[in-house]
Amino acid sequence: MIVALDHIAIAVPDLEKAIKRFMEDFGLTYEGTEDVPAAKTSTAFFPLPATSIELVHPLNGEGPIAGYLEKKGGGMHHLCFRSDDIEADVARLKEKGYQFLSEAPTIGAHNCKVIFIHPKSCDGVLIELNQPQDDHH
Ligand code: CO
Question: Do 117 and 99 touch, CB atoms closer than 8 A?
């Protein structure tokens, strides 16, 4: 089952500049960088307390969200939900018709098992599921 929002990923053209922004401009604690060669990606993490997801939809068909939906700007790349049993969640979601970008979880940042749900299955949002493997050291 889903147990937490693990992280939100933002694609950045200049990693060092973005790290400085989040550290110095936003004052977040910088945990460090980690290259994930299998994903051809460099990552940088800033741990934060627990959070919430807000879904927003135009009220009575008007307002700022209606305008946003018409234009669809934006740059959020994916949401990641932490799982306590990723294989079970993948099986459960596949049974409900969700498509995934790979057949089975692979190893991602933080040595987590990770898998991505196809954006087509989630209103165009790329969603990752992960499961830490800390208890398997
Ligand atoms: Co991620």
Answer: yes
